[in-house]
Amino acid sequence: MKLKQTFIDFMLHHQERHKRSYNFLVLLEAIQTAAKYIQYLYKTGSLKNIMGEAGITNVQGENVMEMDDIANAIVLHYLRRSNQVICAVTEEEAEPVKLNEDGGRYFIYFDPLDGSSNIRHNLPVGFMFAVAKRNLSGPEDLHLRKGADFRAAGIFLIPTGVFTIALANTGVFRFHQDETMTYVIPENSERLIIPDDPKRWELSFNASNTKAFSKNVQSWIEKHESKHSFRYLGALAGDFHRLLSNGGMFMYPAIVNHPKPEKNRPNGKLRLLYEAAVTAFIAREAGGIAIDEEGNDILDITPRYPHQRTALYVGSSPLVESIRKQLINKG
Ligand code: AHG
Ligand code: MN
Ligand code: MN
């Protein structure tokens, strides 16, 4: 009988190969336990009547779904129990949550349930996270880390049961749940690289916003739209998952020409720390790139506050570079 390598086994060997501590392993074990529990509840959620609204809005003024709340509580519980996390930033809490101020070695930034509008349709959502390390050689000032300083970032696709993780300077790897809900790596599976065949590339963005994008983004779209298929699930976790397999570009540009000016979003919609930078970090490890509306690399942006938003263009380098040129030249 041929047994597949589990995620934890994979990580154990990774840590040993690089002569690293097991703390990171303990943290990842907590994260995957949380993901599995969210997945279990999500799959049976309609039977438990937990797929509706929670009746409150979060710090960002968005309606919170009951599953958003549940997923957040699950992740925080397992992170706290792991004793590895000094401080966590989650989409669902206004302030960073201090967990293990003395012993914790890691910062974690997460979106416990990405793609909330899919919940009531039982469509795929995601749990996205990034991990950074505290300063171990001196005092720690708790500043928010930029993507370039992340040690890892990952996305659990729920309830699909696929887990993608990027490890700093190592690559991107994909694990699938087996019959026992254990994440295992398929045989002969290699580090994931975004395909460089333009014929496979797809574009992913909310096309109903097109007229509200800047004129130079609109003209880029006009030039490129006939060359690629469009795909949009409405959950960054899922849309980006597909982009990694096929190549192309996901974008959520700044909204600057909305007919109701109060609905403009000059800083975009997505959150830098636990959405944009997560995809940027994974993209980098898969050979891709991510930029904001000014053409800055997302990984180089030091967050000023936990829920900072940013426009996002992420995917195959040639496509992202071509829109960067357009953004910088302002047309
Ligand atoms: P969340 O559900 O965590 O608030 O994130 C929603 C985000 C992201 O997942 C998705 O790509 C985007 O919002 C979709 O926005 P539109 O509905 O404006 O297209
Ligand atoms: Mn989200
Ligand atoms: Mn969310």
Concise overview:
This protein has 331 residues and is α+β, with helices and mostly antiparallel strands.
**Termini separation (Å)?**
60 Å
* CATH fourth-tier homologous superfamily of the largest domain: Fructose-1,6-Bisphosphatase, subunit A, domain 1
Number of helices: 8
- Rg computed from alpha carbons, rounded to a whole number of angstroms: 19 Å
Keywords:
18 strands, binds manganese (II) ion, Fructose-1,6-Bisphosphatase, Chain A, domain 1, nine-stranded mixed beta sheet, D-Maltodextrin-Binding Protein, domain 2, single chain, 331 residues, binds 2,5-anhydro-1,6-di-O-phosphono-D-glucitol, alpha+beta, 8 helices
Structure characterization notes:
With 331 residues, the protein is of the alpha+beta class. Helix content is 31%, strand content 25%. The chain has helices spanning 7-17, 23-43, 45-48, 66-82, 215-224, 236-246, 272-285, 317-329, and strands at residues 5-6, 53-57, 63-65, 85-90, 97-98, 106-114, 125-133, 150-158, 162-167, 171-177, 183-185, 202-204, 229-230, 248-252, 270-271, 289-291, 309-310, 312-315. The model has no long low-confidence stretch (mean pLDDT 96). Helix 1 packs antiparallel against helix 2 (23-43). The protein has two domains: 7-184, Fructose-1,6-Bisphosphatase, subunit A, domain 1 (Fructose-1,6-Bisphosphatase, Chain A, domain 1, 2-Layer Sandwich), CATH 3.30.540; 198-329, D-Maltodextrin-Binding Protein, domain 2 (3-Layer(aba) Sandwich). The chain has eight helices and 18 strands. A nine-stranded mixed β-sheet has the order 1-11-10-9-8-7-6-4-5, with helices on both faces. Strands 13-12-14-18-16 form a five-stranded mixed β-sheet, with helices on both faces. A hairpin with a 3-residue loop joins strand 9 (162-167) and strand 10. One manganese (II) ion (MN) binds next to strand 6.
